[in-house]
Prior knowledge:
The protein is mainly alpha-helical. It has helices at about 25-35, 40-70, 80-115, 125-160; strands spanning about 15, 20-25. The chain has one domain. A hairpin with a 4-residue loop joins strand 1 (about 15) and strand 2 (about 20-25). The model has no long low-confidence stretch (mean pLDDT about 80).
Amino acid sequence: MYIKTNTSDDNVREYGYTSGTSYDALPIAWFWNNMAHPTKGYTAIAYMFIWLFYLILAVPAMIFWIWQLVEADEDRCVGASGTWLFNMWSSYAHLYGSWILYFLTVLMPILQLGQINGDIFAAGYINALVQMSMMMLTWLGTGIIHVLFVPALNQEWKDRCETAAPIAEVPAEETNVEEVAVEEEPTVDEGNDWD
């Protein structure tokens, strides 16, 4: 999403060089052609980094998380299970990637603001300001969540898969039950004439 500074600013625009007309473009198509733009290049690079880094880091994490949720309990600790993949991805790739790569989505709007040099009426200023704020929130939120919850995820893995010894079936011991003869009271028919 591109937020205009002034109503006269262009959106993310593409130019049809053959027809000589301009048209609004989707940011995913716009950033490929505008990374070298003299005034909106950092905005284009920021859009590319957001698209690329979230695709590389967040999509596999979501797939592994869903896989962990739907797999059977007996398969959780066997081979490359969804539980193992989610734990591994969250502990290494997504933990470090969220702190390092997601920061680049914050850095590009900062560089855009530096290039604009404080001109609050320049095209791209408000977009860079909003983009920097939102990306900083998601960068810090994702990083802090990983720092706080990855140790618990690792502990769950250890408790469930590493320390749990395989349960072997032990045959039950045979017990000899001796039948005890119970003496019964004689009935009236058997000569009991106490009545």
